[in-house]
Amino acid sequence: MRLDYITIFPEYFAPLNASLVGKAIDSGILATGVHDLRQYTHDVHRSVDDTPFGGGAGMVMKPEPWGEALDAIVGPDSQSQTQGERTVLIIPTPSGIRFTQQVAAELADYDHLVFACGRYEGIDARVPQYARTLVEVRELSLGDYVLNGGEVAALAMTEAIVRLLPGVIGNPASLAEESHSEELAGLLEYPLYTKPASWRGMDVPDILLSGHHAKIAQWRRDKAEELTRDRRPDLVPSSD
Ligand code: ADE
Question: Whose CB among 4, 61, 203, 204 lies 3.0–4.6 Å from 193's, allowing a Cys bridge?
Fold first, then answer.
């Protein structure tokens, strides 16, 4: 998979070289490119924003540098595009569709993801409209809160997607029974324990020490349901 990031803060993406994502780059599963949006400006101030038409506070990202960046990265003559590959442009924005585990799994099937990281109040609305003439576009939100820009959201989405790629996680079975996985039917994960069996007066539940696999599976299922009802009632499947 190839990942490209368009941003006015290229230094935000240094963590890509760390941890699992960094290992995936080293092993050739991933290739990444970070592009400074200001390299596509032509004025002395290298400006990327302007005041909003219609008035209002804050600044809006100008369409021209974005248009040039998109032409260079996903346009028909782009060097980073390969014939026949599945490409999607992801625009992190608080007004996007919610980014979920299911969306992460869908995106893990693409060959090329390009993240357009906006700042200020957002990007001129004609930019996604233009981008849709070149590639599939998804405007995605991490959650119901506002970040200062798309960079942190792009990194979070990257991690959620990349860990699903074959060969990235040492033991793929560990993906199976985690929160939001299909195996747990969308429930939150049950509590986990390791040695010692007794610590600071708190004991690991006896059932987990019993070696009785069916009973352990039932206990975990019950705990996952209990936790989900308690913390995320919106995720509990309806009984009808
Ligand atoms: N940019 C700013 N806030 C965001 C959010 N909640 N999700 C994705 N991108 C964002």
Answer: 204
Query: At which residue do the structure tokens 């028909």 appear?
Result: 76
Model pTM? Answer: 0.94
DSSP 11: G
Task: Please enumerate in sequence order all residues whose Cβ is within 8 A of that of 104, keeping only pairs 6 or more positions apart, or say none.
Answer: 157, 160, 161, 164
Report whether pLDDT(82) > 80: no
Distance 19 CA to ligand 1 centre (A): 23
How far is the first Cα of the chain from the last one, in angstroms, to the nearest whole number? 41
How far, in Å, is the centroid of ligand 1 from the Cα of 68?
23
Alpha helices per DSSP H over 172-212: 173-176
Task: Please give all residues whose beta carbon lies within 6 A of any atom in ligand 1, as ranges.
Answer: 92-94, 141-143, 145-147, 150, 153
Phi, psi (5° rounding) for residue 12?
-60, -25
Sheet of strand 112-116: strand arrangement: 31-36, 2-7, 112-116, 87-98, 136-141
Cα 167 to chain centroid distance, Å, stands at 18
Of ligand 1's listed atoms, the one at least distance from the Cα of 144 is 6
What's the CA-to-centroid distance between 35 and ligand 1, angstroms?
20
Measured by CA distance, the residue closest to atom 6 of ligand 1 is: 94
What count of other Cβ atoms lies within 10 Å of the Cβ of residue 6? 28
Count of C-beta atoms within a 10 Å radius of residue 44: 6
Burial class (CB within 10 angstroms; exposed 0-12, middle 13-18, buried 19+) of 167: exposed
Q: What are phi and psi of 216, to 5 degrees?
A: -65, -45
The per-residue pLDDT for 191 is 97
